Amino acid sequence: MKSVKWYLKWCIVVILLILPLCIIGIITNKHSINNVSERWSKDNDSAHISVYISADQNFSITDIKLFRENLKNKLKESNVHITKKGKQSWTDCYQAKSTVTLSDGEIDTEITAYGVGSNFFLFHPATLVSGSYFSDNNLSKDLVVLDEDMAWRYFGSTDIEGMEIYINGKLHIISGVIKRDEGMFQVAAGNGKSSVYMSYDSLVKLNENVAITSYEVVMPNLTKDYAKKIVKENVEISKSKCEIVECSNRYSFEALINVIKDVGKRSMQTKDIVYPHWENVCRGVEDVCAIILGVWLIFAGLITLYLIIKMIIYIYKNGKRFKEFLVNVMKFVIEVFRKIYTTIFKKNVV
After folding, report:
1. Could you give the CA distance from residue 275 to residue 243 in angstroms, rounded to a whole number?
2. d(Cα 125, Cα 178) in Å, to the nearest integer?
3. What DSSP state is assigned to residue 308?
4. Is the pTM of this model over 0.85?
């Protein structure tokens, strides 16, 4: 009976040691869709870097073009600007945010508009219900993507590709309909209400003063922090007006330990920066995983301490037997090495 209780106790301990790590794995895998570096390069040699910028910096397409030119030159110097398949080794996207009014002539709705450019939907692949995304390759710059709620409200259906809607009085064509992400963090992160995605060029026509507040790039990461360092050196923005985040391994053990170290300070925002909802969600996931990991580390530490104490007590009570055991082990090891040495020596003599 005592033996059964002993095994049961240690089975529970093992489960409690494994379970938190499994929970972290489940949570992070659910959000791994945001990790564009894994989708961009199957060789795990790329890094996804995000730059969040204060709106008063008036960061523009001109700044992005300058950064792209500098990035190309840096990658050429390292001979990694082209992949083995002959394609460009990096890509990027950017985003600006404003408030617009949707209208069909009868119903007016004020919602958030995201003006996006380059490969935005590669970085943030929302679930398509119908239609398709748009990109910079589309000749028409007046394409938009609505969420399901707006599709049902204005058209009574989600199968509305090619239909028309007015935004701030200007005609736009619907390219597709997406399913808005749901979950415990989405509403708190700012994704609880309907929004519309349009090209950055189109949003600028509606609001000339709109500024790019988010820029992202996925690129080769030759050594640790190589990509982040290049971005820091070539994004010409004051450090107090931007925040650069490496998103590739943000849920790794090392990254979560850094979150634990920054507890308290992490909640203090001294920069005039508003994170987009996807970054808020990622930060929320980081916090939850860091708490679970912290509790796991404390529990694992207590178990380790308990085992050390039990070993010390055992050695104290069974000192003679333990010494004999160590002597026998040492004799066995010495004998093994002696036989190996003798064998090698004899072969050399022959």
Report:
1. 10
2. 10
3. H
4. no
Extents of the domains making up the chain: 23-293
Based on the number of CB atoms within 10 Å of its own CB, is 247 exposed (0-12), middle (13-18) or buried (19 or more)?
buried
**E strands present in 148-251:** 164-167, 170-179, 195-199, 212-220, 242-246
How many Å separate Cα 103 from the centre of its chain? 35
In angstroms, the Cα distances linking 348 to 175, 193, 339, 345 are 78, 80, 14, 5
Looking from the CA of 173 toward its CB, the CA atoms found within 13 Å total 13
Helix %, strand %, coil % for the chain, to 5?
50, 20, 25
Question: Going by C-beta distance under 8 Å and a sequence separation of 6 or more, which residues neighbour residue 259?
Answer: 266, 286, 287, 289, 290
Q: Is the dihedral of CA 339, 344, 349, 350 positive or negative?
A: positive
> Which phi and psi angles does 193 have, rounded to 5°?
-120, 165
H/E run at residue 62: helix 61-77
The full length of the chain comes to 350
CA 180 – CA 96 distance, rounded (Å): 19
Structure-block tokens of residue 260: 């634990």
Q: In Å, what is the CA distance from 218 to each residue of 49, 82, 248, 264?
A: 6, 13, 9, 30
The predicted-structure confidence for 98-110, as pLDDT tens digits, reads as follows 999 998 888 888 9
Mention every residue, 6+ apart, whose C-beta is less than 8 A from residue 37: 44, 46, 47, 48, 218, 221, 247, 248
Residues 211-262 have pLDDT tens digits of 999 999 999 988 888 999 999 988 878 888 888 999 888 888 888 888 888 8
Mean pLDDT across the chain: 85
> In angstroms, rounded to a whole number, what is the distance separating the alpha carbons of residues 165 and 154?
9
CA 272, distance to chain mean position in Å, is: 22
CB count in 10 Å sphere of residue 81 = 17
